[in-house]
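Fig. S4 source data, part A: sequence.
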Amino acid sequence: MNLVNATPADKLNNLLSAVSAPTLDPAQEQTMRWTSCAMTHTGFVRKHNEDAILDHREQGLWLVADGMGGHWGGDQASQTVIDAMADFNRQQDLSDNVAEIELRLKEANRTCMRTGAQAGKKRVMGTTAALLFAHDPFCFFIWVGDSRVYRRRGETTEQMTHDHSLVQELVDQGKITKAEAEKHPSGNVITRAVGVGHKLQIDLEFATTEPGDTFLLCSDGLYRHVSDQEIGEHLQLPNINDAASRLLALALSRGGSDNISIVVTRTQNH
């Protein structure tokens, strides 16, 4: 199956088949307990906070959305994505859950497009979206744009999403290094977003979960000031509230040049 134009639900089914994943029954769900915390800050440069966050721990869903700066309605766009997910209720079937998340993102996309069109003057109302959905023994990373999801497992920190951005494309093509990308003048140019086109391209990946896994969802206002190594060091702190608050403080101490949003969640056995 060609996954380039596949929907997240199609890709999910293909990936599960590839690893011969067993069919999950309700008794297997939520075998781990998830704890989480979330915070957002305007920073010291922006006048408004165009980020929005969702900590929907009861449904195993977390989300960071970063409204497109420099465009009209960025804060409204990010909140539109949050509103679309706020009443999500998990179902027993794994594929149904992922399909529902995809439908809700597409509805948010239509709402942003419609609101922009009604405002006239070719208004663009766009936002990134990075979601983590837990359905034990798996977790899913669903994203559009350059907001990120990281995982800390043991001594390893890994970025679980792949930025939809101009500089990431240049890195992928071997034209610049990752270090050069961090200071590239086009570092804020994203290649996908909710609300900028009628056809929304959504990416999905998944992984198995283990007790002690710690995940970070964040907007670029964090990772442009804090390195991956520093993120990993903070995610191994015993208290996830300390991890989130210290990451936020570190980004602010280095200028807080953009809105900063952080969601940290951790798994442990019941």
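Fig. S4 source data, part B ends here. The chain has a mean pLDDT of 90.
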